[in-house]
Amino acid sequence: MTSGEWRTSSHIRHSSFVIRHYFRIMQRLKKTLGVRLFHQEAEPLRLRKGCNFHSAERVAFLYLDSDEEFFKSLKKYAKYLKENFNIKSVMMMGFVDQPDKKIPIWQQHKLESDFFSRTNLNWYLKPVSGVKNFLEEDFDILIDFSGGNTLPLNYILKESTAKMKVGALGSRAARNCDFILNMGNQFGVDKYIVQLNAYLSNPKIK
Fold first, then answer.
1. Fewer CB within a 10 Å sphere, N or C end of the chain?
2. Distance between CA atoms of 152 and 126, rounded to whole angstroms?
3. Cβ within 8 Å of residue 116, ≥6 positions away
4. pTM of the model
C-alpha cells in the first residue's frame, strides 16, 4: 500500500467512526427527549375495569420483535387463550426496530397481527402512523410483552383505552398499567406467560 492509499484508507476509517459516533449521540438525544415528552403526555380517559381470561372477550399483545421464534411463541399463546378461555379475539401489535426495507418475512399486516417500524415514528420516537386502528380498539386486556422499556411501545400502551393494562414491575410502562407482575431482575417470555396464566386465569380477578 502506498502512502497515498494509506492516507485515503485512514481517512475513510476516521470518517466512518465520526458518522457512527454522531449517530449514537443523536439516538441518545432522541430517546432522552422522547422519554421526557412521554412523561409529559396525559393518559386518555378510559373505563378501567378488572378482567381475567374468563371474562375477557378481546385481548391484545404489545411486543418488540426480536426473532421468528419469539413471534411464533406469541402466536401460540394467542391460540392457547382462544381455545382454553373462549376469547373471541387476540390482537398482536409488534414494533420492528428496523427501516421498512429490513422488515422480516414473518411480519405481515393481518387481521389479528400487525406491526409498525422506525418509519412510523417521529423524531422523538413516538408512533405517528400505522397504529391508529389499534389505538381505537376497545380491548378488555392489553398485555405488554416488551419488558416495558421500549419507548415506541410505551406510547402505544399509554395511549390505548384498554380496560385493563398489564405490564412488568419496575419498567417505564408500569405507571400506566393496572395490573403489574413482578418478574425480578430478568424478563423472559416463558416466565411471563407462566405468571400471566397463574393470575389472569383466576376468575376472582375483576
1. N
2. 5
3. 93, 94, 95, 96, 127, 129, 130, 131, 152
4. 0.86
